Structure formats: structure tokens, C-alpha cells
């Protein structure tokens, strides 16, 4: 039985002190890029002065450091933005504060959210909270590790191609990616603008859902938000009767890790025991999701990151030649890390004359096929899809850093939903040799409430801490 | 598809990105590895292609085209020390050569 952590708490001042003590203790994880007791105390006092405590009254929430804040620097874990102070808060920050949350810290990430292990941070890698020799996943690894370590009950991350669900699975917490357009991107540092989503972590489904509810809804400052009311937190259903779950065969390959396969079998069995129906389905074009993603996302990144030129933001490095172009090149060459530079180069290459049609245009068309697969399955009577979140549990640090493609394949089960703009979540469903395993639920566009309600039932009826092998 | 050294240097120039000589060989290898991998999309038959995907709402709601207060938490003068008459002062282009 899991109980919610986001609910009535002590005074803001007391929560701020407790959170500060936990953040100090969690320092060895290297999951935090900026926090101070002074700012925490100010946040606690602000909440205590609120006339009407909101739904997140005195709940400490960590923000991934690609979400801009006025009071704390926003670095995106990059030297190029070291010390950068935003002149405005992201919409999600204003909404969290209006709901009574305490902004606790800014968390470490893969530089500019590009990575699947949080090893590509300019400020050092984040440790897995259960085994420091392993990675917490990424790119939102700092937020995931802090929730898993019990430092905060909930955190914000961001998804472009699975960067919340994958670390949630590795760390054994809940990670929810909303539909594209459900949450404002205003103040989320842009990486892949057609894919980026602010997403939430929680110790429980209810925690992640409550935070998502507080930040969701249309925003006049982001024209891509959809004009629908904020998400409602679903109530607990008695069982799963009336729901049909699809198991896409392409997500259960023969070489799937044995522990992950076993955990997913057990989850599907529990769905049946709880009154749900389970049917095998097919999403054939998901096989092309990773190559599609690694054309579209770098292309959008190359355009979005052009603004970091040493003139408009952050660090400036004057080139030897002394002209303005040398300033741009030297600033960018020295300010960005290896993975970001690789993606900018790939993105520039696929957008360049002669290659645009062969790569970028083609990827956009395959993206439509991937989305069409999901639409066909949901139109065919499937309410939710059930898949593994990741092909393996958390891998060792350094295991994939030399082979970028091997690293990209860690996201093979999570990036199709990002391409299709669909809501999805990762739920801890067991442990394999001590390491958490996540199951993924996927819903039709803007059907988050159905997905969260089903996840709550499973959460109440699965032993997420139990060994599956 | 094989990307050579000259092509990587050309792309780096387009991207305004300085590349160190000692990292070039590795970068060429990794670019080739990535581009070869994403070229697996060639397996998708052309007749199965759909119209490009549009994420999000089908019609984007644009706000009224009226001047509004900029939602800055601090005034521009507090962000940039050299802010005069509504303009940010930056070093003159020629001044770079003295640095």
C-alpha cells in the first residue's frame, strides 16, 4: 500500500528547514546544482504568509535546471550558461508557487537535456541513489535521484524523448509525461520545440499527478498550449474492469532483459486479476522511432541553440582572430560539451542543402507513421498501452559514453510517444537484482486522467520493492 | 553514407562551432556512426510515407496583436548595467580587436 506524500504538511518554515537538512545529506549524489537555506527559508516564509494554502501547500519541489527562475541561476548544466540569471520565471514555476509549493533546489541534468544517463553534465555526473556505480538515467537524472532518495516528494523534469520516464524507471519512482500542449513551455529552455514537455516525478502516482495538475492548463505565453481546463487528479478506482490494455509486440523483443520481461509479465497478470482485459497489438513503425528522433531533435536543437553565441547569453570567449565570427565559434566550441556539440553538428548536417529531403523531411513523414500507428490501435478499442519503460535496469556509469548510438537506444521504448505527442508514464513494478524496473502506460492524446487512474490501481496492487526473478 | 573530415569542418563552420584538431578524428567517426544509424529510415518504403506530423493543437491560438507589459521580474536596467534610453549598450565591434 502506498500513501501520498503530497498533502497537508507542517508550516512552510519547518518544511524549509527539514528540506535543507535532507538536501545537505544528499550532496554525494551530485544531484543538485543550486540551493541555499536562505532561499528555502524565504520560500517557507512566503508560503506561511499565503492567505489560502493551495493544493501543494508547503510541498517542497525540485526543478530541473533547464526551467528558468529569477531567484536562482539557470545553467542547463552547461558552462555556456554558467551563472545565468533569468529575468523572469517559467510559467510552471509561477503556478507551483501559486499552489503553495516551496521551490527547493535546481537539479543536475545532461547538458541542455541531451542525454540518457546524466553523465553529460558540465558539473559532473549524478549517482544512482541505490548504487553509485550506476547512472540514474537522464536527462532529468538529478530530479529523479532526489525523489528516489526521499529528499523531496516531487520534482519537475523535462521530456524531449523520454527524459523523465527513463530516469523514473531506473530510480524506482513515478514519472509522468503529459500530452504535448497540456503544460506551458514558457520558460523551459528550448531543445526540441515540437517535442519538449515539462513533466513530473513523484514518489507515488498521486504525488506526480497533483503536481502535474497544478502546472497544467492553457497559457497565453505559450501558443502551443491547448485550450482545455487543467488536469483533474483522478480518484482511486476499485479495479481495472472496463479497461482494455494493449501489449505491443514490438516492445517485447526476444533479447529484452530477463528481469524487465519478468516484471512486465507479472504486471500484465495483475491487470487481468484486477478485471482489465489484455490484448496483443502491433505498432510496427515504432522500430523507426529512435532514428527519427535523432534526426528531428538535433535539427531543432541546432536551431534553438544558435542563440548561445557569447553575445546574448552567458559566457563569452574571444577568438584568436579577434573578429565576431571567431567570438561565436570559440564561445560555442569551448562552452558546449561533447554531446551537445555532436547533436548541433548532426542537426546542422541534416538541415543543410542537399540533405534536408533525405533526412529531415523523411523523418517528419515517418514521425506521422509512428503517430498513425498509435491512433489506429486506440481507435481499435485499446484504452491504454502497457510496455516496459526501458530495455534494461540502470546501467553502469561509463558503459555507453563512447558509443552515442548505444546511449540513444536506452530510449527505444520511450521516444515513440514523444514523437506522437502522447501522454505516458513510468510506474515502478518490481526489482531485478535490487534495481528498479518500470512499466510504461500510454494513453490517447489528452487522456491523462484515465492513465493516472489505472496507474493508481496498479500501484496499490503491486509490490514495487519486490524481486521479480 | 560516409562523412569525411572536410564535410565535418564545413558543417562546424555552418554551425559556428570551433572544433579542436585533436578531437577531429573521433568526431568524424561518431558523426558517421550516428548518420549511418539514422539512415535506417531508408528502409521505410516511400509509398508508406504520410504527411508531416504536426505536434499539438491543429490551430495555434495567437494572442491579440497589442503591445503588452513585458513580464519581466526585474527592470532591464537591473539586468544589464549599461542600459540607456531603452537600449542595451554593447562593446563596439572594433573594440574586440583590442582584447
Task: Give a description of the structure.
The complex is a heterodimer of chains A (469) and B (99). With 469 residues, chain A is an alpha/beta fold. Chain A has helices at residues 12-25, 37-49, 91-98, 141-148, 165-171, 205-215, 258-273, 289-304, 324-335, 338-351, 357-379, 404-408, 415-419, 448-461; strands at residues 32-34, 60-64, 102-107, 154-159, 174-177, 197-202, 244-248, 277-281, 384-388, 424-432, 435-442. In chain A, helix 1 runs antiparallel to helix 2 and helix 8 (289-304) packs across helix 10. The model of chain A has no long low-confidence stretch (mean pLDDT 95). Chain B has 99 residues and is mainly α. Chain B has a domain at 5-45. Chain B has three helices and two strands; from the N terminus they run αααββ. Chain B has a two-stranded antiparallel sheet with strand order 1-2. In chain B, a hairpin with a 2-residue loop joins strand 1 (83-84) and strand 2. The radius of gyration of chain B is 24 Å and the shape is flat. In chain B, 16% of the residues are buried. Classes of the chains: A alpha/beta (469), B mainly alpha (99).
What's the topology here?
The complex is a heterodimer of chains A (469) and B (99).
Chain A: H1 12-25, E1 32-34, H2 37-49, E2 60-64, H3 91-98, E3 102-107, H4 141-148, E4 154-159, H5 165-171, E5 174-177, E6 197-202, H6 205-215, E7 244-248, H7 258-273, E8 277-281, H8 289-304, H9 324-335, H10 338-351, H11 357-379, E9 384-388, H12 404-408, H13 415-419, E10 424-432, E11 435-442, H14 448-461
Parallel strand pairs in A: 2-3, 2-4, 7-8, 7-9
Antiparallel strand pairs in A: 1-3, 4-6, 5-6, 5-10, 9-11, 10-11
Helix pairs in contact in A: 1-2, 8-10, 8-11
Chain B: H1 5-14, H2 21-38, H3 76-79, E1 83-84, E2 87-88
Antiparallel strand pairs in B: 1-2
